[in-house]
Predict the 3D structure of the following.
Amino acid sequence: MATRIEISGLTAYYGKFKAVADVNLTIEPKSVTAFIGPSGCGKSTVLRTLNRMHEVLPGARVEGKVLLDGEDLYGPGVDPVNVRRNVGMVFQRPNPFPTMSIYENVIAGLKLNGVRKKSLLDERVEESLKGANLWDEVKDRLNRPGAGLSGGQQQRLCIARAIAVEPQVLLMDEPCSALDPISTLAIEDLIQKLRSSYTIVIVTHNMQQASRVSETTAFFSLEKTGDPGRLVEYSTTSQIFSNPKEKRTEDYISGRFG
Amino acid sequence: MTTEPDSPADAGTRGTGSQTTPAATEPSVPAQPTAEKPDEVSTDVTPGEAVSEAVSESEAVSETAAASDSTASSDRTAASVSAAVRESVPVSETKGDLTPREISPEPGAKPKIGLADTLFKNLTRTAGIGLLVLIGLIALFLVLRAWDALSANEGNFFTTETWGANDTPPVFGVAALLFGTLLSAVIALAIAIPVAVGIALFITIYAPRRMASALGYVVDLLAAVPSVIYGLWGLLVLAPHFNGTQMWLNDYFGWIPLFDVGEGSVGRSVFLASVVLAIMVLPIIAALSREVFLQVPITHREAALALGATRWEMIRTAVIPYGKPGVISASMLGLGRAMGETIAVALVLPSTFNISWNILKPAGNTIAANVANGFGEANDIGRGALIASGLVLFVVTMVVNMIARAVIARRREFSGRAA
């Protein structure tokens, strides 16, 4: 289930603009890795290259390699659709499908995979919602619209939707930035719970959150606006936050980023 | 001090603008209390708003207003420029004898609502009520004019399949016309909706950006072509070349009663009219559907893609369900146009008055086409009869629209707009 991710020589473009350059890092299986850094440093871009969502935007392209258990996601003949079925993603804003019920939202990915059997679907809905710490809150209203839940519940519904297809990797792009502190706590608890089953990569602007949930942290930064973002330092979270090697990392985490 | 803020936010913008132009061109000349001038549109101020103004801001505002050339500074934001321009009219009238204006009016004074607000409110109210009155008057007109003809009718208006409204005694019925109207409109929609939705999806999702805008333009252009052009095209160009298609349908799909001509021949048929109608309503449905699909939030599309959806699956999961109410509305507009279309159908169809499910035979007529064909030589009763048929069309259109609204409302909480 969980998978090692090796990124080597990764450069991502939006049209002619080089957003992030020459990223090399290895993410261990069944770990939580946080990407931190100032806005525009390319951390979300790198995250989106891990399930080939980057290229969804017009003009966006990627150079370099991303190996998922040794297999290059950007190798010839690799279908991005298959990649995305193995690498789940949770977005910044909760985005349950508004036209679907809670139940339908959870099984959306399974349906795309051709699962039709009602008993199996029921089972997976319960499993996934329990996995996302949402079951108790919604079990009596599975047929109500997913958009009717609170923001935090919607985000957990999105996590349930992502894990329902049993991906190997779970990517989270600032999953709590649109949520209140209590919902944020619920998501962080959930990440603690999911770390035993999935390789998790989370982008966050909240450094306390990074230090709370992750084992390893990658700090991205950029020299000045218009320059590509780069990976500055990649190490264990405790090292990054207590004893960073790079001056820029230290400046950033101590709030002296200039 | 001051002033005429429409809203605190607005005043804030102006304040910012004037900080960049310290309006030193004119000292704060005393301004007359303008609240007493009813002809100045935006000068009145409610006490609450005025008090909430920061004094420094208020000063800045009045300075901006007092600047003789309020558009001189180039570094202002567009909003503050427009605000200043708006202000410069009343202020320039009073220039020269400005006295300080009060923040709070006399104690006990009623908060005044600006003339512009009153004017605008009444304008919109008049427009709204006017529309209702207009609809009512149209209905009344139709009923009154139809009444005489209906009382003189020797046949049953709803079942008779002839139109002898000008004969004595008059015998006419709307049955065949209504049937033809609904049949041709429904077939037209059946052809137009899939194509239109396809066009809209292609423009919003598949087409490269440049091609998408060109296509969108062409679609809008199609909507602007007058119906008589479509009618003439259908009659002169399409009809002569369409018999082959109709014969083919008869040969291979004759087992469907709709396409079974039997011993007869094909010709200027309901099907031909429907095709012309379909082409006419296509741009409406396509243009509106495109707008709806463009509104699907990018996050929903990405959610589907991130689950491993192909583009088509993404469309099926995220785009079409979200756009469905809009597509239904668009289709109903198209249906309305197809049912009400007059001249194109009148040109194409041979005006017969019988109900036939066979859509390939040269036969058929619609309410609107019958009005166009018959109004010229109709006598009093004949006109009343035509108006009665128009009333039927009016009611049918209304019922169709109500059904469509009910369909949309049924799944409202799942529409993504209710939450």
Q: What stands out?
A: Chain B touches chain A at residues 209, 297, 299-300, 302-310, 313, 317-318, 321-322, 324, 411, 413-419 (CB under 8 Å).
